[in-house]
Amino acid sequence: MQPNRQTGAATLMGAVLLLTLITLMVVVALEMSRSSVGDSAMLNDGHEAFFLAESGIEVATKNWIDGVPCDGSLAQTLVLDSRRTIVIEQGFATDFDGITALPVDQCRIRARGEIATLGVVQVAEYIAADTGGGSTQIEYQFPSDIGDFPTSGPASGGYPYRCNNTGNGSLSEVGNTTWDSGNNAPGSVGGSFRAQLWSWFFGGSRIHRGYREATLPSTIVAGSTVDLSLYFAKIMGNASRVQNHHMYLDLVATDGTNYRLWCNEQISDFGWTNATTLGWIVPAGKTIDRIRIGYYFRVRRARNLSEFFATYGWWDAIQLTIN
Questions:
Q1: Is the distance from CB of 55 to CB of 85 less than 8 angstroms?
Q2: d(CA 300, CA 236)
Q3: Which of 41-50, 82-91, 93-102 has the lowest mean pLDDT?
């Protein structure tokens, strides 16, 4: 009878151990779920805070054009509700470097959006211009990881990712986009926006495609003339294995119509290069309210270790002049 009692005790201990492990797994799963929900809420609040900051820029720009001096006089706090606040910090008479004086018809404006729930704050900063003839100038810098273009576009579907305005392929998505704090176009500060794609040893070709979007501080009405200036740079990594390397800039109307103002599909290394599109006219019946920077990178599989590489594209110092 003694051996039977020992066997029963061992079985009981095993059951207790199993229950303990299951309990620990449930606790870990709940904690991971709670963390994921918290991260999602933080990301959503970050996007909302940036939209609030952009709204502050629009309010301050109008006040400045209406005669408020480009200095601390533009400062204003707009409490929308117990959760959301817009803070217009002030206007500056200097460029983004804080040293170079701006022309008298330009004003650098900084505002921030605050979400009280999780204490999220995002800052937006633009240079506005008023020539007295109805001309407005908007310049985009890249001051943070979500920067001036907080919204990610779809990575699949029928969106025209390539320079010839077509989508392409159903390959798995790889690569990423990020803020590159150490790489700036000439005369720019604060970083740039970068997309990248790596080759790999397994499978076939790989792609990275999509866009980042921002809401303009003010809409552009039908008949307006838009001049675009931007800087871009490219590194192929291994040009013989790169199949596509498309970088583009789109303006988007309130009805979703997409207009491609600039695209470069050359499979070549570029140091910081200025590109312009001059004299584009907003079509009749359309109002532009968004801007997108996008990419379509496709590379062949690396056949050996020496062919493993990454390819990159950068955007910086994007400027729209509207007349």
A1: no
A2: 12
A3: 41-50
The boundaries of every CATH 2.60.120 domain in the chain are 151-322
Cβ neighbours, 10 Å, residue 109: 25
Q: What is the pTM of this model?
A: 0.61
Separation CA 63–CA 105 (nearest Å): 14
- Over the range 119-148, which residues count as b (16 or more CB within 10 Å of their CB) and which as e? ebbbbbbbbbbbeeeeebbbbbbbbbebbb
Contacts of 200 (CB under 8 A, 6+ apart): 174, 206, 301, 302, 308
Whose tokens are 């590379």? That residue is 299
3-class state of residue 284 by DSSP: coil
E runs forming strands in 181-303: 192-198, 206-220, 225-235, 242-253, 258-264, 270-281, 288-299
Reading the block at residue 176, the tokens are 């990423």
**Is CATH 2.60.120 the classification given to domain 151-322?**
yes
- Residue 139 token pair: 């310049």
Whole-number pLDDT of residue 263: 96
Residues 298, 50: Cα–Cα separation, whole Å: 31
Question: Which of 84-88, 125-129, 194-198, 281-285 comes out lowest in average pLDDT?
Answer: 125-129
3-state secondary structure of 315: strand
